[in-house]
Design a protein that fits this description.
The structure is a single chain. This protein starts with a strand and ends in an 8-residue tail after the last helix. It contains seven helices and five strands; from the N terminus they run E-E-H-H-H-E-H-H-E-H-E-H. Strand 4, helix 6 and strand 5 form a beta-alpha-beta unit. The chain has a single domain, classed as Ribonuclease H-like superfamily/Ribonuclease H (Nucleotidyltransferase, domain 5), CATH 3.30.420. Helix 5 packs across helix 6. Helices cover 41% and strands 16% of the residues.
């Protein structure tokens, strides 16, 4: 079984691109990753001037809040540390990037309502990527669990899409005739508070790695 912890960058009005990143971990590696994250978090917390509840990539990236007093080279090192750690733990990434203006301009008026939402479109793209990849694995047992940063407004709508995905999604992963739709994805996605899940925080930090080096 595999677990994907995902978070998105769409926090502020005026952003041009929504980026969603999922950190994918095998169940056998998950417990050790949780322990190692706690150790890394303690190291990062030692560089932070206040009590640190969770890691927010945008705050580190732009030097907001208590991070304004942390030198840019240290903030940059935090991102580098997590990128190297993801590689060492042999976790993989799922990425969905949507040009917001293009998405809205090209969206047909009769497009299914749930997928007119940027967040839902990104989340479905993450699910489709993992379906396509994991159905090719030879010794893949169980299914993939999707875990997103808490978003009560989207939860039910996403789970409806995962339970009954649009027929056109089948072409993305070349669904076989007798194959059930999205058979590598657990029917319902789960939602958690990011400060309860280290890999959700790593996903948040990974979002900033697709932008410029912090100044």
């Amino acid at each position: 079984m595999k677990f994907c912890y995902a978070d998105e960058s769409l926090d502020n009005a005026g952003e041009k691109v929504q980026v969603m990143v999922g950190i994918v971990a095998d169940a056998q590696r998950l417990n050790r990753s949780r322990l190692e994250f706690s150790e890394i978090f303690a190291l990062v917390e030692g560089k932070y001037p206040e009590a640190l509840k969770e890691l927010k990539g945008s705050r580190i990236f732009y030097g907001h809040g208590g991070w304004r007093d942390v030198p840019p080279e240290i903030r940059k090192a935090v991102f580098k540390l997590f990128c190297e750690w993801i590689d060492e733990r042999k976790h993989s990434l799922a990425l969905a990037a949507i040009d917001i203006a293009s998405f809205k301009a090209r969206l047909p008026e009769n497009y299914p309502d749930p997928l007119r939402d940027l967040w839902l479109a990104g989340a479905l793209h993450i699910a489709l990527q993992l379906q396509k990849l994991h159905q090719t694995l030879k010794k893949n047992k169980g299914h993939t669990v999707l875990i997103f940063d808490e978003n009560k407004a989207k939860a039910d709508r996403l789970n409806e899409v995962l339970f009954a995905p649009p027929a056109w999604t089948e072409t993305y992963y070349e669904k076989r005739k007798k194959q059930a739709p999205l058979d590598e994805i657990i029917d319902s996605a789960f939602f958690t508070k990011s400060h309860h899940a280290g890999l959700a925080q790593v996903a948040d930090c990974s979002l900033s790695c697709f932008a410029a080096t912090p100044s």
